[in-house]
Amino acid sequence: MADNDKLLMNGYRFGSEKDAKTAEEEIKLARYFETRMTGKSGRNRLAVYDQLLDKKVFRTPLGWEYLRHLQEELQSLGISEEEIRPIPMYMTFVHDAEDADRTPVRERIRPARPKSRVNKYHVSVLINIILVIMVIAMFAITLNSDNPNILNYKNNIINQYASWEQELTERENKVREKENSLQMNVGEELNGATENTGG
């Protein structure tokens, strides 16, 4: 029974403790606004009433009772009914099985978003294709570059050693040719010297 007492507030039984606490807070707010507006003109009270509606301060029947009380006060202070905005109800109270429109009131009030022609899926696929092309291009550039890297270091090192080996072989052949030509020159000089001394 104690739980049911928590749901009671000013003659209303709420469906949850949270709603009952919200109603209790709205009663305190109503008292606060009532003390702040004593002695104010009708126009000032109308401005406060409009702000309360714009900011959706009151959301329970107790808050709506206070707003209704404000409407009556404004009319008694000479504000015309046309200037006093009605209290908006942002929920439905009767749910019929035959009721075709089941969208919440907030959804019906909210302006419809223009539908985009470009689907998010298509954009995602396009971006992925561009990224794949970029990765392939990077691999191609890396494979064909002269600088050693993780993909072509073995081939570059083998090519470098092969070129060094070829250079060494060419130098070795040149040195041998020079040795042979020197030996031939020395041999000819020795032959010429022996002929001159022996003859």
Query: Span from first to last CA?
Result: 150 Å
Total count of domains: 2
Low-confidence stretches: none
- How are helices and strands ordered from N to C? HEEHHHHHH
Note the main sheet.
2 strands, antiparallel
Q: What characteristic shape results from the CA principal axes?
A: rod-shaped
Task: Work out the number of β strands.
Answer: 2
Question: Describe it for me?
Answer:
With 199 residues, the chain is an all-alpha fold. The chain has 2 domains: 2-109, no CATH class; 125-198, no CATH class. Helices cover 66% and strands 2% of the residues. The chain is built from 7 helices and 2 strands; from the N terminus they run H-E-E-H-H-H-H-H-H. A two-stranded antiparallel sheet has the order 1-2. A hairpin with a 2-residue loop joins strand 1 and strand 2 (12-13). Helix 3 (42-54) runs antiparallel to helix 4 (61-76). The longest helix has 46 residues, at 153-198. The radius of gyration is 49 Å and the shape is rod-shaped. The model has no long low-confidence stretch (mean pLDDT 80).
Helix and strand topology:
Blueprint: H1 2-7, E1 8-9, E2 12-13, H2 17-37, H3 42-54, H4 61-76, H5 105-109, H6 120-144, H7 153-198
Q: What tags apply to this protein structure?
A:
199 residues; mainly alpha; two-stranded antiparallel sheet; 7 helices; 2 strands; 2% strand
